[in-house]
Write a structure and sequence with these properties.
Layout: H1 16-22, H2 24-42, E1 53-54, H3 60-63, E2 65-66, H4 70-77, H5 81-99, H6 101-111, H7 116-127, H8 134-144, H9 151-158, H10 170-198, H11 202-210, H12 215-239, H13 247-253, H14 259-262, H15 265-276, H16 279-307
Antiparallel strand pairs: 1-2
Helix pairs in contact: 4-16, 5-10, 6-10, 7-10, 8-13, 10-12, 12-16, 15-16
Amino acid sequence: MKNRKKAAIPKRKISKRTYFKNNWQLYVLVLPAIIYFFVFNYMPLYGIQIAFKDYKAVKGIAGSVWVGLKHFENFFEAYYFKRLLSNTFLLNIFYLLWSFPIPIVLAIFLNQIRSNRLKRIIQTSIYVPYFISTVVLAGMLYIFLSPTSGILNFARQALGMKPIDFMSDAGAFRAIYIISGIWQSAGWGTILYIASLAGVDQALYEAAEIDGASIWQKIRYIDFPSIVPVMTMVFILDCGKLLSSNTDKVLVMQTSGNIPTSDIIGVYVYTVGMGTGQFSYTTAIGLFINLINFVMIITVNTISKKITDVGLF
């Protein structure tokens, strides 16, 4: 007998109303997140037009005079524009180059520890600095680097060298900012990489051990390739913040002596916006920073997709 083909049973289409009725709990669950992003991320977009107006609080946004690109031109033509831009870019690019590899190295190191108790102790100790507030961190820096009572200057004097006021030294500002930032956030940054390494099939390690692979070979051929996608995404996101420094930290670390290197765009926007009330001018600067960051993240993402076939979108 010839094989008879079974007639395909047509799929029953579910209406949107029925689908919503059957899954309304999921919509309720995601509703707070939607409301949060709408209120704090989308509604403020209405205020972007302040950058193109001569904003007066008494007239409101709608009643203020339209001035076009006037505020952008004033910022670009200002004598301090190059200094602000170069200080911000150099601070962030140096921080990215030094801080990006540290969490990767720590995560791979922690993954090689076989004692769960020791691993938890180390993880806890390197996570704790992340929860220290910016003001407290700055206070610690002022105490440790004090020219009169700082532990570092005590060591210098013991070696016969003169004490240095590091917090007032323009040449030392970037190093202090970067080193303290790595100490505070490197441990927290390992979370994504540790999660990726935890998902690696253990059979790969067993096969590598049978083949006589050393620890470095397992790191090179198993651990490192498994975290490359996460590394790429983190790097793309970090490149989208090259003009967005930690303004709070720089502000509390800034002194009259280190202004030549600590005078960045974020601090300038805060000083001018809150100090003199030039809201239109500072909004234009903020919009300029966000546009540059947007272009950077799109560019790096495009390059990454062409080279590694990994990207955010």
